[in-house]
Amino acid sequence: MATIGDFDPLNSTVPATKIEITVSCRNLLDMDTFSKSDPVVVLYIQGLGTKEWREFGRTEVIDNTLNPDFVRKFVLDFFFEEKQNLRFDVYNVDTRSSNLSKHLLL
Length: 106
Description:
Layout: E1 16-21, E2 39-46, E3 53-58, E4 74-79, E5 86-92, E6 104-105
Antiparallel strand pairs: 1-4, 2-3, 2-5, 5-6
């Protein structure tokens, strides 16, 4: 984690630090017939000055739960005084495919 001593005002345009985001969900929809949903969370970041969303990362898939506490953490740069849009999409994973169109958006 960055400290105040890590900030060099001569070599930085915007003060920034690293943040760590932990994700959990509660009361997800149960989309599976014979078991509970198998959720994964996909984090998207919106580009500065654009409306385009870029995939930043994914959590692990947790089988058969509607209340997952994900282990994977997202570590990203936080820029002070700047608006940073994040979007978290939760999918029910039904196949081993990494293609999100093969899974149901919860």
